[in-house]
């Protein structure tokens, strides 16, 4: 349920980075504009770096999937999903930081601009506390043939034992 919520919320707010929210419509102050640009620049840097790693891992996975080692395939798939989750969490964190900068009037305008402008009680994602949105998986960027994959803290214990062996 939490993963589903993270995926739904992450995809919603990654759409916000894709240009569906025009923050300038909110009549930002010069200080707000500067702070938002700084957040956007940070997001784009993380996104570029991890997207490139995800693309490399997906290309490698595609080539080894038919005949490759099962453990290596699972490691690649886990790393791809960990990095995608990390990007969704970073997108959410960036959105939340931007939202924090807004005045109550600007937040009201923002609510109307969101793709899912539903009241909080109607959305299962909105029922989750914000603290859970800050639970971020660490990006994994070492090559598959290198050191063993770092298991995300949310992985089941059995999976953690298997990875550490």
What does this structure look like?
The protein is mainly alpha-helical and 165 residues long. The chain has a domain at 2-16 and 27-46 and 82-139. Helix content is 65%, strand content 0%. It contains 6 helices and no strands. The chain starts with a helix and ends with a helix. Mean pLDDT is 73; it is low at 1-18, 123-135 and 143-165.
Task: Name its key features.
single chain, mainly alpha, 165 residues, disordered N terminus
Q: Strands, helices and their partners?
A:
Blueprint: H1 2-20, H2 30-64, H3 70-101, H4 104-113, H5 130-133, H6 157-164
Helix pairs in contact: 1-3, 2-3
How would you concisely characterize the structure shown here?
By secondary structure, the chain is an all-alpha fold. It is 65% helix and 0% strand. α2 runs antiparallel to α3.
Shape: elongated
Q: Let me know the average pLDDT.
A: 73
Strand content: under 5%
Task: Tally the helices.
Answer: 6
As a whole number of angstroms, the C-alpha radius of gyration is 18 Å
User: Which residues form runs of ≥5 with pLDDT under 50?
Assistant: 1-18, 123-135, 143-165
Q: How far apart lie the N and C ends?
A: 29 Å
The share of residues in helices is: 55-70%
- Supply the helix-strand structural class: mainly alpha
Biggest pleated-sheet summary: none
Task: Give, in order, the helices and strands.
Answer: HHHHHH
The strand count comes to: 0
